[in-house]
Write a structure and sequence with these properties.
Blueprint: H1 2-22, H2 56-62, E1 72-76, H3 77-80, E2 85-86, E3 95-100, E4 107-114, E5 116-117, H4 118-130, E6 140-142, H5 144-150, H6 157-172, E7 174-179, E8 183-186, E9 191-195, E10 200-204, E11 218-222, H7 223-226, H8 234-244, E12 251-255, H9 256-262, H10 269-286, E13 290-295, E14 300-305, H11 318-321
Parallel strand pairs: 2-5
Antiparallel strand pairs: 1-11, 3-4, 4-7, 6-10, 7-8, 9-10, 12-14, 13-14
Helix pairs in contact: 4-6, 8-10, 9-10
Length: 332
């Protein structure tokens, strides 16, 4: 089985290399190095000329993301049930090189690049919302300040710099995934930069990402509720993704050991269960996403997922939805 997976992974890598040689523009848009981040590259001219507009066959090939409800984003099931985004602590970010991510047995996920944390996951989820209704592969213009507010961040120079660093990780990291239905190699976000002609920022999603959403293999993540998750509750964010991939109105049973493995959480199992996991489950219960949590004697945990139409969503205070704007900084 391992030889077959290695062979398949090599085929994917060769295919990607060939595609990049044929279409150099498909390579990552950002070539940034820490700690200095140079200005971003120019975006393609806007708007495109009619002659440059993709043909109907090309449009059909590239496709669009499935439409989500207004307050939601979505996580592909196989990513949500893996350590590709992990609740890591500050200063513990690693550099991966074709590392096999922890995941369920129905998917093999390899990752090369700087480790992605749950704040990067917030950026990815919001990028998917920005890309709603747009052709994958197209340049999508957006407002950085509003982007930050939508993920509960303040607006100012330091946060713009943080956002650029997060986009760098998401555009430079490479994911290779193989499941029973598909195999793909891609950057989770294909490009991000400043259009120096218009002064606007843009992002681009790789058309390959559509494979991750096929056959309804994704869970809707309520971004309104996500903004209400307490500070330093990254395990709760990971668990929100995981819970979203399972059926509403049903009891889910899983071992604490697997949750620790798939979430990329280190340390002793008993510490993980007593601290991180217990705290995260309690937070999701407080938010009304799950209830009837039970820690069983066989090492497994169960909970009941509350149906979406039974979850109460109180209005968020202004401080939670739009952080204080630094008046000395403009979004350029």
């Amino acid at each position: 089985m391992a030889n077959a997976l290695d062979k398949a992974r090599q085929e994917i890598e060769h295919a990607v290399q060939a595609r990049q040689q044929q279409h150099p523009a498909a390579t990552p848009a950002l070539e940034l190095t820490a700690p200095d981040l140079p200005s971003a590259e120019k975006a393609p001219p806007r708007p495109p000329k009619p002659s440059d507009t993709p043909s109907s066959s090309e449009t059909k090939t590239r496709g669009t993301l499935p439409l989500f409800p207004p307050l939601d984003s979505a996580m592909p099931n196989h990513l949500a049930r893996s350590s590709i985004f992990a609740p890591i602590k500050t200063g513990e970010r690693q550099k991966h090189e074709k590392a096999l991510m922890a995941s369920r047995g129905d998917a093999s996920i390899y990752y090369s690049g700087l480790q992605l944390d749950m704040a990067d996951n917030d950026v990815f989820l919001q990028a998917l919302r920005v890309a709603q209704g747009m052709q994958l592969g197209d340049t999508i213009y957006f407002n950085r300040a509003q982007f930050l507010r939508n993920i509960g961040r303040s607006v100012g120079k330091s946060q713009y710099e943080w956002l650029q660093e997060s986009f760098y990780r998401l555009t430079s990291g490479t994911v290779i995934i193989q499941t029973k239905r598909y195999k793909a190699a891609l950057h989770l976000i294909d490009g991000y930069a400043l259009d120096e002609q218009t002064g606007e920022y843009w992002l681009r999603m790789n058309p390959e990402i559509i494979k991750l959403f096929g056959h309804m293999e994704y869970g809707l993540v309520d971004m309104h509720t996500r903004l209400r998750i307490g500070r330093r509750q990254d395990m709760a964010k990971w668990l929100q993704n995981y819970v979203a991939t399972h059926e509403e109105g049903k009891t889910h049973v899983i071992s604490a050991q697997l949750l620790q493995l798939w979430s990329g959480s280190g340390g002793r199992l008993r510490d993980f269960q007593a601290r991180s996991l217990s705290k995260a489950l309690t937070e999701l219960e407080r938010l009304g996403l799950i209830r009837d949590i039970q820690f069983r004697t066989d090492g497994k945990i169960s909970w009941w997922r509350v149906p979406q139409d039974q979850i109460e969503l109180p209005d968020l205070p202004d401080s939670a939805t739009t952080a204080a704007i630094d008046p000395t900084q403009n979004d350029q």
